[in-house]
Protein backbone atom coordinates (compact mmCIF):
# COMPACT_ATOMS: atom_id res chain seq x y z
CA UNK A 1 0.00 0.00 0.00
CA UNK A 2 2.75 2.46 0.99
CA UNK A 3 4.70 1.63 -2.15
CA UNK A 4 1.72 2.24 -4.42
CA UNK A 5 1.46 -1.45 -5.28
CA UNK A 6 -2.07 -1.95 -3.91
CA UNK A 7 -3.54 -3.01 -7.25
CA UNK A 8 -4.87 -6.39 -8.33
CA UNK A 9 -2.07 -7.06 -10.81
CA UNK A 10 0.76 -6.13 -8.44
CA UNK A 11 -0.93 -7.60 -5.37
CA UNK A 12 -1.16 -11.03 -6.97
CA UNK A 13 2.50 -10.90 -8.01
CA UNK A 14 3.51 -10.04 -4.45
CA UNK A 15 1.34 -12.90 -3.22
CA UNK A 16 2.99 -15.34 -5.59
CA UNK A 17 6.44 -14.31 -4.41
CA UNK A 18 5.33 -14.68 -0.80
CA UNK A 19 3.91 -18.12 -1.58
CA UNK A 20 7.27 -19.17 -3.03
CA UNK A 21 9.13 -17.94 0.05
CA UNK A 22 6.71 -19.75 2.37
CA UNK A 23 7.23 -23.01 0.49
CA UNK A 24 11.00 -22.65 0.85
CA UNK A 25 10.36 -22.50 4.59
CA UNK A 26 8.45 -25.78 4.20
CA UNK A 27 11.57 -27.37 2.67
CA UNK A 28 13.57 -26.20 5.69
CA UNK A 29 11.09 -27.73 8.13
CA UNK A 30 10.94 -31.02 6.26
CA UNK A 31 14.72 -31.08 6.74
CA UNK A 32 14.42 -30.14 10.43
CA UNK A 33 11.78 -32.78 11.15
CA UNK A 34 13.85 -35.43 9.39
CA UNK A 35 16.91 -34.28 11.36
CA UNK A 36 15.01 -34.74 14.63
CA UNK A 37 14.05 -38.26 13.58
CA UNK A 38 17.60 -39.00 12.49
CA UNK A 39 19.03 -37.85 15.83
CA UNK A 40 16.41 -39.25 18.17
CA UNK A 41 16.18 -42.68 16.59
CA UNK A 42 19.94 -42.77 16.08
CA UNK A 43 19.68 -43.47 12.39
CA UNK A 44 23.06 -44.42 11.01
CA UNK A 45 22.38 -42.52 7.81
CA UNK A 46 23.20 -38.85 8.19
CA UNK A 47 21.93 -38.33 4.66
CA UNK A 48 18.32 -39.11 5.69
CA UNK A 49 17.41 -35.47 6.37
CA UNK A 50 18.93 -34.33 3.09
CA UNK A 51 17.01 -36.92 1.11
CA UNK A 52 13.73 -35.92 2.76
CA UNK A 53 14.27 -32.25 1.93
CA UNK A 54 15.40 -33.14 -1.60
CA UNK A 55 12.32 -35.25 -2.35
CA UNK A 56 9.99 -32.51 -1.12
CA UNK A 57 11.89 -29.75 -2.91
CA UNK A 58 11.65 -31.64 -6.20
CA UNK A 59 8.01 -32.71 -5.82
CA UNK A 60 6.02 -31.17 -8.66
CA UNK A 61 2.86 -30.28 -6.72
CA UNK A 62 4.61 -28.02 -4.17
CA UNK A 63 6.64 -26.48 -7.01
CA UNK A 64 3.45 -25.65 -8.87
CA UNK A 65 1.54 -24.36 -5.83
CA UNK A 66 4.46 -22.15 -4.81
CA UNK A 67 3.83 -20.25 -8.05
CA UNK A 68 0.21 -19.55 -7.09
CA UNK A 69 -1.13 -16.95 -4.67
CA UNK A 70 -3.38 -19.43 -2.89
CA UNK A 71 -3.76 -20.88 0.60
CA UNK A 72 -2.13 -24.28 0.07
CA UNK A 73 1.51 -23.35 0.66
CA UNK A 74 0.62 -21.41 3.79
CA UNK A 75 -1.48 -24.28 5.16
CA UNK A 76 1.33 -26.71 4.44
CA UNK A 77 4.13 -24.69 5.99
CA UNK A 78 2.27 -23.64 9.13
CA UNK A 79 1.11 -27.24 9.67
CA UNK A 80 4.66 -28.50 9.31
CA UNK A 81 5.95 -25.95 11.79
CA UNK A 82 3.25 -26.96 14.27
CA UNK A 83 4.25 -30.62 13.96
CA UNK A 84 7.93 -29.74 14.31
CA UNK A 85 7.45 -28.06 17.68
CA UNK A 86 5.32 -30.94 18.96
CA UNK A 87 8.21 -33.22 18.01
CA UNK A 88 10.59 -30.92 19.85
CA UNK A 89 8.60 -31.73 23.00
CA UNK A 90 8.62 -35.45 22.19
CA UNK A 91 12.35 -35.56 21.56
CA UNK A 92 13.41 -33.63 24.66
CA UNK A 93 15.52 -35.51 27.19
CA UNK A 94 12.84 -37.32 29.13
CA UNK A 95 14.95 -37.61 32.25
CA UNK A 96 15.19 -33.86 32.77
CA UNK A 97 12.11 -32.84 34.68
CA UNK A 98 13.37 -29.29 35.02
CA UNK A 99 12.68 -28.75 31.33
CA UNK A 100 8.92 -28.54 31.94
CA UNK A 101 8.93 -24.90 30.88
CA UNK A 102 10.15 -25.99 27.44
CA UNK A 103 7.19 -28.35 27.19
CA UNK A 104 4.86 -25.39 27.67
CA UNK A 105 6.88 -23.14 25.38
CA UNK A 106 7.01 -25.59 22.48
CA UNK A 107 3.34 -26.52 22.97
CA UNK A 108 2.43 -22.83 22.71
CA UNK A 109 4.55 -22.31 19.61
CA UNK A 110 3.01 -25.42 18.01
CA UNK A 111 -0.46 -24.06 18.76
CA UNK A 112 0.46 -20.68 17.29
CA UNK A 113 1.43 -22.18 13.96
CA UNK A 114 -1.57 -24.51 13.92
CA UNK A 115 -3.78 -21.47 14.48
CA UNK A 116 -2.16 -19.82 11.46
CA UNK A 117 -2.71 -23.01 9.45
CA UNK A 118 -6.40 -23.12 10.35
CA UNK A 119 -6.67 -19.42 9.54
CA UNK A 120 -5.33 -20.24 6.10
CA UNK A 121 -7.66 -23.16 5.37
CA UNK A 122 -10.19 -25.27 7.26
CA UNK A 123 -8.28 -28.41 6.19
CA UNK A 124 -5.99 -27.85 9.18
CA UNK A 125 -8.65 -29.47 11.38
CA UNK A 126 -7.54 -32.81 9.95
CA UNK A 127 -4.20 -32.24 11.65
CA UNK A 128 -5.79 -32.53 15.12
CA UNK A 129 -5.82 -36.38 15.25
CA UNK A 130 -2.28 -36.33 13.86
CA UNK A 131 -1.08 -33.92 16.54
CA UNK A 132 -3.01 -35.90 19.18
CA UNK A 133 -1.17 -39.10 18.30
CA UNK A 134 2.15 -37.29 18.54
CA UNK A 135 1.06 -35.82 21.88
CA UNK A 136 0.29 -39.31 23.20
CA UNK A 137 3.89 -40.28 22.43
CA UNK A 138 5.08 -37.08 24.06
CA UNK A 139 3.34 -37.52 27.41
CA UNK A 140 3.33 -41.28 27.82
CA UNK A 141 6.12 -41.21 30.41
CA UNK A 142 4.75 -41.03 33.94
CA UNK A 143 6.47 -37.82 34.92
CA UNK A 144 5.08 -36.11 31.88
CA UNK A 145 1.43 -37.02 32.42
CA UNK A 146 1.19 -34.25 34.97
CA UNK A 147 2.29 -31.82 32.29
CA UNK A 148 -0.32 -33.02 29.82
CA UNK A 149 -3.31 -31.00 30.98
CA UNK A 150 -1.52 -27.66 31.40
CA UNK A 151 0.21 -28.21 28.04
CA UNK A 152 -3.13 -28.95 26.36
CA UNK A 153 -4.62 -25.89 28.03
CA UNK A 154 -1.80 -23.68 26.76
CA UNK A 155 -2.12 -25.21 23.29
CA UNK A 156 -5.87 -24.54 23.16
CA UNK A 157 -5.63 -20.96 24.43
CA UNK A 158 -2.77 -19.98 22.11
CA UNK A 159 -4.45 -21.63 19.11
CA UNK A 160 -7.72 -19.81 19.86
CA UNK A 161 -6.20 -16.35 20.20
CA UNK A 162 -4.03 -16.88 17.13
CA UNK A 163 -7.14 -17.81 15.17
CA UNK A 164 -8.95 -14.78 16.58
CA UNK A 165 -6.27 -12.42 15.34
CA UNK A 166 -5.40 -14.14 12.05
CA UNK A 167 -8.97 -14.86 10.92
CA UNK A 168 -11.48 -12.77 12.93
CA UNK A 169 -14.14 -13.36 10.27
CA UNK A 170 -14.50 -16.94 11.52
CA UNK A 171 -16.26 -15.68 14.65
CA UNK A 172 -19.69 -14.19 15.19
CA UNK A 173 -18.56 -11.08 17.06
CA UNK A 174 -15.42 -9.11 17.78
CA UNK A 175 -15.63 -10.02 21.47
CA UNK A 176 -12.60 -12.25 22.08
CA UNK A 177 -14.42 -14.03 24.91
CA UNK A 178 -17.31 -15.00 22.63
CA UNK A 179 -16.22 -18.26 20.99
CA UNK A 180 -19.31 -18.57 18.80
CA UNK A 181 -18.43 -19.36 15.19
CA UNK A 182 -19.78 -16.94 12.60
CA UNK A 183 -23.15 -18.04 11.20
CA UNK A 184 -22.06 -16.68 7.79
CA UNK A 185 -18.86 -18.75 7.94
CA UNK A 186 -20.87 -21.90 8.70
CA UNK A 187 -23.37 -21.01 5.97
CA UNK A 188 -20.56 -20.65 3.45
CA UNK A 189 -19.12 -24.05 4.38
CA UNK A 190 -22.55 -25.66 4.06
CA UNK A 191 -23.07 -24.00 0.70
CA UNK A 192 -19.71 -25.24 -0.58
CA UNK A 193 -20.52 -28.74 0.64
CA UNK A 194 -23.89 -28.63 -1.12
CA UNK A 195 -22.10 -28.37 -4.47
CA UNK A 196 -20.69 -31.86 -3.93
CA UNK A 197 -23.68 -33.44 -5.60
CA UNK A 198 -23.32 -35.75 -8.63
CA UNK A 199 -26.52 -34.26 -10.06
CA UNK A 200 -25.20 -30.70 -9.74
CA UNK A 201 -24.51 -28.55 -12.79
CA UNK A 202 -22.09 -26.31 -10.90
CA UNK A 203 -19.24 -26.02 -13.47
CA UNK A 204 -16.23 -26.93 -11.27
CA UNK A 205 -17.97 -30.09 -10.04
CA UNK A 206 -18.67 -31.57 -13.47
CA UNK A 207 -15.10 -32.81 -13.95
CA UNK A 208 -15.37 -35.18 -10.95
CA UNK A 209 -18.90 -36.46 -11.57
CA UNK A 210 -17.63 -39.73 -13.08
CA UNK A 211 -14.27 -40.25 -11.38
CA UNK A 212 -13.38 -43.50 -9.64
CA UNK A 213 -12.87 -43.10 -5.87
CA UNK A 214 -9.26 -43.65 -4.77
CA UNK A 215 -8.09 -44.63 -8.28
CA UNK A 216 -8.53 -41.15 -9.74
CA UNK A 217 -6.51 -39.39 -7.06
CA UNK A 218 -3.90 -42.14 -6.90
CA UNK A 219 -3.30 -41.91 -10.66
CA UNK A 220 -3.05 -38.13 -10.53
CA UNK A 221 -0.54 -38.22 -7.68
CA UNK A 222 1.42 -41.06 -9.23
CA UNK A 223 1.55 -39.76 -12.79
CA UNK A 224 1.57 -35.98 -12.39
CA UNK A 225 1.47 -34.20 -9.03
CA UNK A 226 4.10 -36.23 -7.17
CA UNK A 227 5.69 -38.47 -9.78
CA UNK A 228 6.03 -42.25 -10.31
CA UNK A 229 9.49 -42.66 -8.74
CA UNK A 230 8.74 -40.56 -5.66
CA UNK A 231 5.38 -42.30 -5.18
CA UNK A 232 6.88 -45.78 -5.37
CA UNK A 233 9.59 -44.80 -2.90
CA UNK A 234 6.94 -43.40 -0.55
CA UNK A 235 4.96 -46.64 -0.64
CA UNK A 236 8.09 -48.68 0.03
CA UNK A 237 9.13 -46.32 2.82
CA UNK A 238 5.68 -46.52 4.43
CA UNK A 239 5.91 -50.31 4.49
CA UNK A 240 9.46 -50.21 5.88
CA UNK A 241 8.47 -48.00 8.82
CA UNK A 242 6.65 -50.93 10.42
CA UNK A 243 9.77 -53.08 10.43
CA UNK A 244 11.18 -51.17 13.39
CA UNK A 245 9.82 -49.52 16.51
CA UNK A 246 9.58 -45.98 15.22
CA UNK A 247 6.35 -44.51 16.54
CA UNK A 248 6.63 -41.14 14.81
CA UNK A 249 7.12 -42.67 11.37
CA UNK A 250 4.17 -44.94 12.08
CA UNK A 251 2.07 -41.86 12.76
CA UNK A 252 3.34 -40.17 9.60
CA UNK A 253 2.38 -43.25 7.58
CA UNK A 254 -1.04 -43.62 9.18
CA UNK A 255 -1.85 -39.93 8.76
CA UNK A 256 -0.76 -39.95 5.12
CA UNK A 257 -2.80 -43.05 4.29
CA UNK A 258 -5.85 -41.91 6.28
CA UNK A 259 -5.92 -38.45 4.72
CA UNK A 260 -5.41 -39.84 1.23
CA UNK A 261 -8.20 -42.38 1.66
CA UNK A 262 -10.58 -39.77 3.06
CA UNK A 263 -9.94 -37.15 0.39
CA UNK A 264 -9.86 -39.61 -2.50
CA UNK A 265 -13.43 -40.80 -1.85
CA UNK A 266 -14.87 -37.28 -1.77
CA UNK A 267 -16.87 -35.89 -4.66
CA UNK A 268 -14.36 -33.08 -5.19
CA UNK A 269 -10.80 -34.31 -5.69
CA UNK A 270 -8.57 -31.40 -6.74
CA UNK A 271 -5.05 -32.77 -6.66
CA UNK A 272 -3.84 -29.72 -4.70
CA UNK A 273 -5.90 -30.88 -1.70
CA UNK A 274 -3.28 -33.60 -1.19
CA UNK A 275 -0.44 -31.12 -0.78
CA UNK A 276 -0.73 -31.31 3.01
CA UNK A 277 0.62 -34.90 3.00
CA UNK A 278 3.45 -34.37 0.51
CA UNK A 279 6.00 -33.47 3.26
CA UNK A 280 5.31 -36.77 5.01
CA UNK A 281 5.41 -38.60 1.69
CA UNK A 282 8.87 -37.11 1.20
CA UNK A 283 10.07 -38.28 4.61
CA UNK A 284 8.78 -41.79 3.94
CA UNK A 285 10.48 -41.75 0.53
CA UNK A 286 13.74 -40.87 2.29
CA UNK A 287 13.29 -43.96 4.46
CA UNK A 288 13.17 -46.08 1.32
CA UNK A 289 16.13 -44.33 -0.29
CA UNK A 290 18.50 -44.93 2.62
CA UNK A 291 17.25 -48.51 3.00
CA UNK A 292 17.81 -49.29 -0.67
CA UNK A 293 21.19 -47.59 -0.39
CA UNK A 294 22.21 -50.24 2.11
CA UNK A 295 21.25 -52.98 -0.31
CA UNK A 296 22.75 -51.43 -3.43
CA UNK A 297 25.50 -48.91 -2.79
CA UNK A 298 25.17 -47.33 -6.22
CA UNK A 299 21.43 -46.81 -5.77
CA UNK A 300 21.83 -43.27 -4.45
CA UNK A 301 23.56 -42.20 -7.64
CA UNK A 302 20.59 -43.50 -9.60
CA UNK A 303 17.99 -42.02 -7.26
CA UNK A 304 18.90 -38.40 -8.03
CA UNK A 305 18.33 -38.49 -11.83
CA UNK A 306 15.23 -40.65 -11.41
CA UNK A 307 13.69 -38.18 -8.96
CA UNK A 308 14.74 -35.17 -11.07
CA UNK A 309 13.33 -36.43 -14.37
CA UNK A 310 9.70 -35.38 -13.90
CA UNK A 311 10.26 -32.04 -12.07
CA UNK A 312 12.95 -31.10 -14.63
CA UNK A 313 10.39 -31.62 -17.39
CA UNK A 314 7.71 -29.75 -15.45
CA UNK A 315 9.96 -26.72 -14.93
CA UNK A 316 9.76 -26.09 -18.67
CA UNK A 317 6.32 -24.55 -18.25
CA UNK A 318 7.96 -21.70 -16.31
CA UNK A 319 10.77 -21.30 -18.84
CA UNK A 320 8.62 -21.31 -21.98
CA UNK A 321 5.92 -18.69 -22.67
CA UNK A 322 2.55 -19.29 -21.02
CA UNK A 323 0.23 -20.87 -23.61
CA UNK A 324 -2.45 -18.20 -23.10
CA UNK A 325 0.10 -15.43 -23.60
CA UNK A 326 1.52 -17.16 -26.69
CA UNK A 327 -1.99 -17.62 -28.05
CA UNK A 328 -2.90 -13.98 -27.35
CA UNK A 329 0.18 -12.72 -29.18
CA UNK A 330 -0.74 -14.93 -32.11
CA UNK A 331 -4.35 -13.70 -32.05
CA UNK A 332 -3.31 -10.04 -32.23
CA UNK A 333 -1.16 -10.89 -35.26
CA UNK A 334 -3.45 -13.29 -37.14
CA UNK A 335 -7.01 -12.29 -36.22
CA UNK A 336 -8.01 -8.93 -37.72
CA UNK A 337 -9.38 -6.08 -35.67
CA UNK A 338 -13.16 -6.00 -35.58
CA UNK A 339 -13.54 -9.77 -35.52
CA UNK A 340 -16.23 -11.37 -33.38
CA UNK A 341 -14.93 -14.05 -30.98
CA UNK A 342 -16.98 -16.68 -29.15
CA UNK A 343 -15.61 -17.87 -25.79
CA UNK A 344 -16.85 -20.29 -23.14
CA UNK A 345 -18.51 -19.63 -19.81
CA UNK A 346 -16.41 -20.33 -16.70
CA UNK A 347 -13.15 -20.00 -18.57
CA UNK A 348 -10.73 -17.16 -19.25
CA UNK A 349 -11.51 -15.27 -22.42
CA UNK A 350 -8.77 -14.76 -25.00
CA UNK A 351 -6.99 -12.71 -26.07
CA UNK A 352 -5.74 -11.20 -22.83
CA UNK A 353 -4.59 -7.60 -22.70
CA UNK A 354 -0.93 -7.29 -23.72
CA UNK A 355 1.22 -4.14 -23.96
CA UNK A 356 -1.73 -1.85 -23.42
CA UNK A 357 -3.82 -3.38 -26.20
CA UNK A 358 -7.49 -3.04 -25.31
CA UNK A 359 -9.33 -6.23 -26.21
CA UNK A 360 -12.74 -4.57 -26.12
CA UNK A 361 -11.62 -1.96 -28.66
CA UNK A 362 -10.28 -4.57 -31.09
CA UNK A 363 -12.71 -7.48 -30.83
CA UNK A 364 -16.29 -8.28 -29.87
CA UNK A 365 -16.21 -11.05 -27.24
CA UNK A 366 -19.36 -13.12 -26.57
CA UNK A 367 -19.62 -15.83 -23.92
CA UNK A 368 -21.47 -19.11 -24.57
CA UNK A 369 -23.32 -21.03 -21.79
CA UNK A 370 -21.65 -24.39 -22.46
CA UNK A 371 -22.22 -25.65 -18.89
CA UNK A 372 -25.97 -25.04 -18.93
CA UNK A 373 -28.04 -28.27 -19.00
CA UNK A 374 -28.58 -29.70 -22.46
CA UNK A 375 -32.30 -29.77 -21.73
CA UNK A 376 -32.38 -25.96 -21.49
CA UNK A 377 -33.64 -24.64 -24.86
CA UNK A 378 -32.23 -21.19 -24.11
CA UNK A 379 -28.75 -22.72 -24.07
CA UNK A 380 -28.96 -23.78 -27.71
CA UNK A 381 -30.62 -20.59 -28.86
CA UNK A 382 -27.80 -18.57 -27.30
CA UNK A 383 -24.98 -20.96 -28.23
CA UNK A 384 -25.90 -21.44 -31.89
CA UNK A 385 -26.88 -17.80 -32.19
CA UNK A 386 -23.47 -16.75 -30.90
CA UNK A 387 -21.63 -19.16 -33.20
CA UNK A 388 -23.61 -17.93 -36.22
CA UNK A 389 -22.50 -14.38 -35.50
CA UNK A 390 -18.87 -15.22 -34.60
CA UNK A 391 -15.79 -15.30 -36.79
CA UNK A 392 -13.70 -17.30 -34.31
CA UNK A 393 -14.32 -19.72 -31.46
CA UNK A 394 -11.61 -19.84 -28.79
CA UNK A 395 -11.21 -22.39 -25.96
CA UNK A 396 -8.54 -21.15 -23.58
CA UNK A 397 -8.27 -24.50 -21.74
CA UNK A 398 -9.88 -27.93 -21.44
CA UNK A 399 -11.97 -26.71 -18.51
CA UNK A 400 -15.25 -27.05 -20.40
CA UNK A 401 -14.78 -29.61 -23.13
CA UNK A 402 -12.95 -32.22 -21.07
CA UNK A 403 -15.35 -31.99 -18.12
CA UNK A 404 -18.41 -32.13 -20.37
CA UNK A 405 -17.12 -35.00 -22.51
CA UNK A 406 -16.47 -36.97 -19.30
CA UNK A 407 -20.16 -36.61 -18.39
CA UNK A 408 -22.04 -37.69 -21.55
CA UNK A 409 -25.08 -38.68 -19.50
CA UNK A 410 -25.45 -35.06 -18.38
CA UNK A 411 -24.38 -33.51 -21.66
CA UNK A 412 -25.21 -35.91 -24.52
CA UNK A 413 -25.66 -33.15 -27.09
CA UNK A 414 -22.77 -30.96 -25.92
CA UNK A 415 -20.47 -33.99 -25.81
CA UNK A 416 -21.35 -34.82 -29.41
CA UNK A 417 -20.80 -31.18 -30.36
CA UNK A 418 -17.23 -31.32 -28.99
CA UNK A 419 -16.50 -34.71 -30.59
CA UNK A 420 -17.57 -33.42 -33.98
CA UNK A 421 -15.59 -30.22 -33.51
CA UNK A 422 -12.33 -31.99 -32.65
CA UNK A 423 -12.85 -34.64 -35.33
CA UNK A 424 -13.27 -32.00 -38.03
CA UNK A 425 -16.90 -32.93 -38.66
CA UNK A 426 -18.21 -29.51 -37.69
CA UNK A 427 -19.20 -27.73 -40.92
CA UNK A 428 -19.06 -24.26 -39.38
CA UNK A 429 -15.61 -24.11 -37.76
CA UNK A 430 -12.19 -25.56 -38.50
CA UNK A 431 -9.06 -25.65 -36.34
CA UNK A 432 -6.98 -22.54 -36.92
CA UNK A 433 -4.51 -22.48 -33.99
CA UNK A 434 -3.42 -24.84 -31.21
CA UNK A 435 -1.14 -23.83 -28.33
CA UNK A 436 0.26 -26.02 -25.58
CA UNK A 437 2.90 -25.79 -22.91
CA UNK A 438 3.28 -29.41 -21.89
CA UNK A 439 6.18 -30.41 -19.64
CA UNK A 440 9.18 -31.02 -21.87
CA UNK A 441 12.96 -30.92 -22.17
CA UNK A 442 12.97 -28.61 -25.18
CA UNK A 443 14.43 -25.82 -23.06
CA UNK A 444 17.45 -28.09 -22.60
CA UNK A 445 17.69 -28.78 -26.30
CA UNK A 446 16.14 -32.26 -25.99
CA UNK A 447 13.07 -32.81 -28.25
CA UNK A 448 11.08 -34.71 -25.64
CA UNK A 449 7.60 -33.58 -24.60
CA UNK A 450 5.34 -35.22 -22.01
CA UNK A 451 1.66 -34.37 -22.56
CA UNK A 452 -0.21 -34.17 -19.25
CA UNK A 453 -3.64 -33.18 -20.54
CA UNK A 454 -5.00 -36.33 -18.90
CA UNK A 455 -4.33 -34.88 -15.46
CA UNK A 456 -6.87 -33.35 -13.13
CA UNK A 457 -8.18 -30.11 -14.61
CA UNK A 458 -6.83 -28.04 -11.71
CA UNK A 459 -3.33 -29.28 -12.48
CA UNK A 460 -3.21 -27.83 -16.00
CA UNK A 461 -5.69 -25.00 -16.57
CA UNK A 462 -3.84 -22.32 -14.61
CA UNK A 463 -0.19 -22.46 -15.60
CA UNK A 464 -0.12 -24.54 -18.79
CA UNK A 465 -3.59 -24.81 -20.38
CA UNK A 466 -4.21 -26.20 -23.84
CA UNK A 467 -5.64 -23.52 -26.15
CA UNK A 468 -7.71 -24.19 -29.28
CA UNK A 469 -8.66 -21.53 -31.82
CA UNK A 470 -11.28 -22.34 -34.45
CA UNK A 471 -12.08 -20.20 -37.48
CA UNK A 472 -15.46 -19.89 -39.10
CA UNK A 473 -15.58 -21.46 -42.54
CA UNK A 474 -16.88 -19.16 -45.25
What does this structure look like?
This protein has 474 residues and is mainly alpha-helical. It is built from 21 helices and five strands. Strands 2-1-3-5-4 form a five-stranded mixed beta sheet. Strand 1 (340-344), helix 17 (359-362) and strand 2 (364-368) form a beta-alpha-beta unit. Helix 10 (215-225) packs across helix 11 (228-240). It is globular, with a radius of gyration of 25 Å. The mean pLDDT is 91.
In short:
The protein is mainly alpha-helical and 474 residues long. The longest helix has 33 residues, at 8-40. Helix 4 runs antiparallel to helix 5.
Strand tally is 5
What shape does the CA trace take?
A: globular
Separate helix tally: 21
Beta-strand share of residues: 5-15%
Elements, N to C (H/E) = HHHHHHHHHHHHHHHHEHEHEHHEHE
Helix vs. strand class:
mainly alpha
Helix content: 55-70%
Strand numbers in spatial order across the main sheet: 2-1-3-5-4
Radius of gyration, in Å, reads 25 Å
Classify the oligomer.
single chain
Cα-to-Cα separation, first versus last residue: 52 Å
Largest sheet geometry: 5 strands, mixed
Low-confidence stretches: none
Q: Let me know the average pLDDT.
A: 91
Helix and strand topology:
Elements: H1 8-40, H2 48-57, H3 60-65, H4 72-90, H5 100-120, H6 127-138, H7 142-166, H8 183-194, H9 203-206, H10 215-225, H11 228-240, H12 247-264, H13 278-295, H14 299-314, H15 316-319, H16 323-334, E1 340-344, H17 359-362, E2 364-368, H18 377-389, E3 392-395, H19 401-405, H20 412-423, E4 429-435, H21 457-460, E5 467-472
Parallel strand pairs: 1-2, 1-3
Antiparallel strand pairs: 3-5, 4-5
